[in-house]
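USER:
Try writing one entry.

ASSISTANT:
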Amino acid sequence: MKQILNMVTAFFIYPFLKFKFKNRNIWLVGGNAGELYVDNGKAMFEYLNTKEDLEVYWVINAGSPAFNDVKGKKLLRGSVKSYLYFMNSKVSLFSHSISADIVPYLFVVPLINRFHYKVTKVFLNHGTVGLKKRQPMNPKLEKLINKLIKSYDINTADAEYEKKIKNLDWGIDERKIHITGSPRYDSLEKETTFEKDRIFFMPTWRPWLKDNGNIEKTAYFQNITGLISNDKLQDFLRENDIELRIYIHQLMHKYLKEFRENITDENVVLLPKEADIQNEIMTSRLLITDYSSISFDFFYIDKSVLFFQFDKSEYNEKVGAYLDLDKDLFGPAAFDINSCVTEIMRMHKESFQIEDEYKKMKESYFKYNDKGNSERLFKIIEGEVIGKRKNINNNSVV
């Protein structure tokens, strides 16, 4: 209610303060419902801050653990000021949705939502599409969410395969989908020297477990904790001086205490919610995941991925993937704890080198590998803003 009140307040004071925003080129960026400072949003925010003619703000929650990490100007999500700045902005970029990340509820409020269509909206995605089919958090809002997604002016893609998914499955106008590559890939470097070998374990969340009353009895919990507490794996980590670093998906962090209680070895580290995932990617030799889009980040810089898919049938039934999980994975798959440990040890013997059969698949998933993704997207946004301004001027003349 406070956010809606702030929105209405901003709407009524907008005409009286409009003169303060004249000739200002305001761009807003956000992600993860204001909680984190990560991935494509962070990459574009820091890139845009190199442009002297832009006034760029990151939209964040007051209590966010990443509040002090933001390198630039900030607006408090849901505040009067943030709504007012949005109403006077040129561009808004976001990784999840404009409603969750930038201006809560504005899209659904009559009259006020005219500002939604005035601003150029750029959907960055929080990860490459492929291993998880899009589905609304609340099925009752599916029609509304579909309308919201289709209203975005620019939608990014890594390659033709991702563009087709967004066009044919999501129903987005093909003209709005641009193959630019993910901005966050620009800063990825493949480390070649390591103080200590690291394996990064990042399982994704399960929508059917988000509000589970007894997480410890689920196959999800038992397989994750079973792997990190496996005696054979722990002996292997100690003998080879390898650190296993695990990041539980942010939507499952309410169960962090239960996961922490199952870590008994000093070579296993449970990372906090605000962990720098980019750094984990660059300093790890191997990724273990199930269906997380972070696997594409590892693949992008030619690092090996091991897919630990202990609930493959259930996942296919309840979520599903756009990729064929039997044919299209760019790394080996394991379906139980023992086989996963065996694969880790085998891949270690081969120095965690990505195998040739997977390297051949890379061009199918990435069109560019030149650190120019942010620049490409910026030029497309500029063109969209100019085009929208021309339309407004033409309509004004008419």
User: Anything to note?
Assistant: Residues 143 and 212 are 26 Å apart (CA to CA). The mean pLDDT is 92.
